[in-house]
Amino acid sequence: MLATVSERPPGPDPAWAIEMKWDGIRAISQISRGGARFWSRNGRDMTLSFPELAEAFPGITGLVLDGEIVAPNPVTGAPSFGRLQHRLGTRPSTALRAAVPVRYFVFDVLEIATESVMDLSYLERRERLDELQLDGGPIRVPPTWIGEDPARMLRIAADASLEGIVLKRIDSTYRPGQRSRAWLKVPLRKVETFAVAGWLDGTGANQDSLGSLVLAGRLDGQLRFAGCVGSGFTNAGRHAIRAALDQIARPDLPLDVEPPPGIARSTHWCDPVIAVDVAFRELTDDGVLRQPSFKGVRSDVDVSAIGWPS
């Protein structure tokens, strides 16, 4: 079940529960006698990347849970998608598991004793989830607040360096695969996924890697230029991305719509097969991101399904 972005959430209302929005990767887990398995939103099996989570449910069977896998910042404790990237798509060594520990933040339960509870209300499902007493070790069941002021909760989220908040109607049932206004996400900054269509050369310290990525999204079925992002990278990240781009470089334009002349002249094009998350303030009237910042590569996203930012 997916949340709808909301710029103006409802005011304090006992019909709504509020959860924090975590900067990680959404994961459905199934716990059976053989252990736990984890799937991404697009159905990719992620179990091998997170063995400590797969082993974290001893003696428990017959559950299906919904939550977020996060990698806490070692100093602030806030989830960091940049850190989580080191674990995605890997079979982590003992050293990597120690360097980048992960947690599974469980916020919903879909099956108990192999019986679906998705037709129960959100409030009833949360009560069932709390009764399971899963909180401990790398498994966390974060709190929910009912009737709180969203503006106050957003300030708390900002102070904790979180992504924002999610509001959920306490009478809502769980509808898998559907984006619903019964769930509203209020990000402190918008974060959207884009296809990488090319890159611009770097200067100074970045002249051997890249200056910025050229981004694209799909509007009315056409892949279009959506702006460039040049901030938010680590030095190692710039070099790693540039190495990947060199492997998929192409001489011709991968977009369906001609970009601005300045971009067309200076861009090194590539096949649009890499997806990245970018945080930004807003989309300008001419369809370009304002104040973009690179968040990370998304290996769990089907690039062909990327749309246009709302």
Can you put this structure into words, describing what you see?
By secondary structure, the chain is of the alpha+beta class. Helices cover 17% and strands 34% of the residues. The protein has seven helices and 19 strands. It has helices at residues 51-54, 81-84, 94-99, 122-131, 150-159, 235-247, 261-266, and strands at residues 2-5, 16-21, 25-32, 35-39, 63-70, 103-112, 115-116, 139-140, 145-146, 164-169, 179-187, 190-200, 212-219, 222-229, 268-269, 275-280, 282-283, 289-290, 293-297. A hairpin with a 2-residue loop joins strand 3 and strand 4.
Give a brief rundown of this model:
The chain is of the alpha+beta class.
Mean pLDDT: 93
Number of distinct beta strands:
19
Helix percent reads: 10-25%
Q: From the alpha carbons, calculate the radius of gyration and give it in angstroms.
A: 20 Å
Element layout with pairings:
Layout: E1 2-5, E2 16-21, E3 25-32, E4 35-39, H1 51-54, E5 63-70, H2 81-84, H3 94-99, E6 103-112, E7 115-116, H4 122-131, E8 139-140, E9 145-146, H5 150-159, E10 164-169, E11 179-187, E12 190-200, E13 212-219, E14 222-229, H6 235-247, H7 261-266, E15 268-269, E16 275-280, E17 282-283, E18 289-290, E19 293-297
Parallel strand pairs: 1-11, 6-8
Antiparallel strand pairs: 2-9, 2-10, 3-4, 3-5, 5-6, 6-7, 10-11, 12-13, 12-15, 12-16, 13-14, 16-19, 17-18
Characteristics:
alpha+beta, 310 residues, 6-stranded mixed sheet, 34% strand, globular, 17% helix, 6-stranded antiparallel sheet, 19 strands
